[in-house]
Amino acid sequence: MNKAGQKLELPHVLVEAVKDQRAVVVFGAGASMECTDKKGNRPPNGHHMRDHLALKFLGTRDEERDLATVAEMAIANGAGQPAVFEEISNLLSGFPPSNAHKKLADFRWRGFATTNYDTIVEHGYAENQERKQTCLPFVKDTEPFEDRLRAQTNPLALLKLHGCLNHRLDPDIPLVLSNEHYHRFIANRKLLFGRLRDWAQSSPLIFVGYGLADPHLRSLVYEINAGHRPRWYIVSPDSDEHDVKLWSSMSVDVIDATFGEFLDALDHQIPSLFRSLSPPEGVADEPYRKHFRTHDAGSDILRQSFKMDLSRFCAAPCARLGYFPFESDRAFPAQC
To answer: b/e string for 61-70 if b means 16 or more Cβ within 10 A?
Structure first.
């Protein structure tokens, strides 16, 4: 429901983009706030993480400095980067995916990107047995991007722009946490950010879990000419009329909803029929390929076997009824 208590109706052009697998979702920290652990706790926000690091590594309370500064001090004052990253991992681990995260997998997307460190999106896909795509996280430029996508029938790339808890000790891609990390964030992630910019040029972006003043959102908005791209969207339940007017002038529509409400609206407006995957090319002529787990069409010997040997074997029991799936099978007597 929106603030007026009415059912949320999403823009038609956005709904059509999701149907056509053209939409890209970009996740910020707020996207994880609907998750709860066994005790009912929610993931910590930036202020909570700052306060925790300040108390543990600096011995200070009522901290007023920002998270990036406190993290830099903790690392420089003797704790070291691995210990600080381990503490961040402990704070963010143990939160199962929300219903909204699992419902993401009911739809087809062009791609995902996130500035979060957690693995909640990946776990949401793993827990949805009816998922339409396979979520593949990418954390650094040296990964074989195209090869990994080709190895899956219905791949979905998740660009982890600020690092990942599973790779927190990789010196090439540290968590983007301190001021120094922000200064060097592009190192070994240039291709990841480039892919997001390529998507942004031709796809509707849906920002979830970002504040309206978030620098990452504003950077993309300012970098790509609004007149040369599709309209973008930000899912934000805390916007007012001034926020809406500002972002509308930049070709960004504000969707007044939580993450869960947004997915519920998609679920209501897109029937199951429009979420099914299109069959791979060649399936009409080679129907057995719909059972393949990759895009590989099979060897020439396999295709020839299906066309000649196996098709004749299957046609034989029907010959006495005068039914021949292949006209050439009339030359072969039934072997019943």
So the answer is: eebeeebbeb
pLDDT block averages, 10 residues each, the chain of length 336: 69 96 96 94 96 96 94 94 97 96 97 97 97 97 97 96 96 95 92 95 95 75 88 91 90 95 96 72 53 54 64 48 45 44
Report CA 117 to chain centroid distance, whole Å. Answer: 13
- The CATH number of the domain holding residue 169 is 3.40.50.1220
Question: What pLDDT does 335 receive?
Answer: 44
pLDDT of residue 124: 98
Q: Is residue 1 part of a domain?
A: no
Residue 6 is assigned to a structural domain of this protein: no
CB 104 within 8 A of CB 263: yes
Residue 138 pairs in a beta bridge with: 159
pLDDT for residue 315: 45
- Number of domains the chain contains: 3
- One domain, residues 204 and 75: no
Strand residues in the chain grouped as ranges (E): 24-27, 111-114, 134-138, 155-160, 205-208, 232-235, 252-255
CA distances to 42, 51, 195 from 55, rounded to whole Å, are 20, 6, 38
Structure tokens at 122: 């990946």
List for the chain the helix, strand, coil content (%; round to 5): 45, 10, 45
Domain with 78 in it: 44-94
Place of tokens 């709860």: 36
> What are the CA-CA distances from residue 36 to residues 1, 42, 98, 249 (Å)?
21, 5, 8, 36
pTM: 0.81
User: Tokens 């994880």 appear where?
Assistant: 32
Inside any domain, residue 271? yes
